Amino acid sequence: xxxxxxxxxxxxxxxxxxxxxxxxxxxxxxxxxxxxxxxxxxxxxxxxxxxxxxxxxxxxxxxxxxxxxxxxxxxxxxxxxxxxxxxxxxxxxxxxxxxxxxxxxxxxxxxxxxxxxxxxxxxxxxxxxxxxxxxxxxxxxxxxxxxxxxxxxxxxxxxxxxxxxxxxxxxxxxxxxxxxxxxxxxxxxxxxxxxxxxxxxxxxxxxxxxxxxxxxxxxxxxxxxxxxxxxxxxxxxxxxxxxxxxxxxxxxxxxxxxxxxxxxxxxxxxxxxxxxxxxxxxxxxxxxxxxxxxxxxxxxxxxxxxxxxxxxxxxxxxxxxxxxxxxxxxxxxxxxxxxxxxxxxxxxxxxxxxxxxxxxxxxxxxxxxxxxxxxxxxxxxxxxxxxxxxxxxxxxxxxxxxxxxxxxxxxxxxxxxxxxxxxxxxxxxxxxxxxxxxxxxxxxxxxxxxxxxxxxxxxxxxxxxxxxxxxxxxxxxxxxxxxxxxxxxxxxxxxxxxxxxxxxxxxxxxxxxxxxxxxxxxxxxxxxxxxxxxxxxxxxxxxxxxxx
Length: 548
Hints:
Layout: E1 2-5, H1 6-16, E2 21-24, H2 31-38, E3 44-47, H3 51-65, E4 69-73, H4 77-92, E5 96-102, H5 121-126, E6 131-134, H6 141-153, E7 160-165, H7 166-170, E8 172-175, H8 190-202, E9 206-210, H9 212-216, H10 220-230, E10 234-236, E11 251-253, H11 259-267, E12 270-274, E13 294-298, E14 312-315, H12 318-326, H13 336-371, E15 378-380, H14 384-392, E16 402-403, H15 413-424, E17 428-433, H16 434-437, H17 443-450, E18 454-460, H18 465-475, H19 488-494, E19 498-502, H20 505-517, E20 522-527, H21 540-547
Parallel strand pairs: 2-3, 2-4, 4-5, 5-7, 6-7, 9-10, 9-12, 10-11, 12-13, 13-14, 15-16, 15-17, 17-18, 18-20, 19-20
Antiparallel strand pairs: 1-8
Helix pairs in contact: 1-2, 1-6, 3-4, 3-15, 10-12, 11-13, 13-14, 13-20
């Protein structure tokens, strides 16, 4: 037991559970915590410009490191601002913990109209968090922070939150600091693994489906080893990209939402799915034919069978589940001709995508992959280049280097890039649209303040182009999708970020090379009127709407 303030108890507990970075904004209702964090030698606070950005940055930080991402906000409006980012973290299963203030305990829950008061803040947080703690006594702070952190990290990650009233942050009491940087993994049942191995050994046209849970669990090496042991091709979801290098001869990449994906699964006689809930885009709105012999490994028993019934259910951490199969499978019966057909489908589909994106964007893909190191995260906002070549043509070579807003929000790209760059320590490429960037453009100032090595590629077409395409094809008219042209070079330079305008592919490569030479942030404002246009097919759910 040690005498300390409540703010110090928060900071000491974060240090005990291994936190290295905290993303947040200082406020009258979190000053003692901010002060205590400033005295922690192993914790760095990254000051963002909006609480939503703090949540997105903490999310991406967790995705690239596998560690806990922590945000610190004010009570009331600060906590409300963070909600969209926490929603994204919940959607993508990310280890994000929010610490927020609360008004003084003598005024809490009384509806007196106190500064920053939110009477139902815990109830609000529970809509996007699995575990929420509302501190009643300073002596409870460490225990409650550690409890929420353990809940976030064990099993399928989900965000959690703790609110600490401001008077308890200032109060000094005897506190016992608890918490550990590690949590136990969920161990698979041995008998069930035997059943799964039997199906996989016998399959002749086996396909492995790698979801985001493979990367969350740090199981990419095991997944690749199992694919090689079985000689089976691997498809991934978008979140599963990097679980096997996309230049690997068994990698099919993400293409299950296209017609070619249907062909692969119509022929498959068995599927091993790991760390996935079979979301709508990846399954063509659940029309993809998954064979009856489905072995499904997931740490969350509630997602298994939610969209496709499994033949064998393996509730386990992905890393331990795959390890268990590797120990049981020494050879397989996978037909090499089936694998060859799958690889031909991949090659044909990639060529079709290149035709859709046009020669200029195809060349941009080649330049990026040639210049950007394989261990550099690539963050892609919800924009047309992401939907086309970002998700399909740009090879992802390592686990935890592919980041996007999984809930397909527009705008999180820049703050996600901040967290990815801080977590990886490497230059981070951000594929961003002009419309999306305007939702978080203030974070360029945070990048300049902390000299965060992000490279923001702004594909500038003065509007929301994906929505334009849907309007043209489904509604037949446009409204609300045109935006005034913004000179992002002036905006970035005004915030202290080096920036260049890019007019055409011939200017792109030297500009990107110069950005990589800088230690801090860069922005390239790419005028899309100088590039051959992308022909974007309608998303699956919009195709279905048009056909009704």
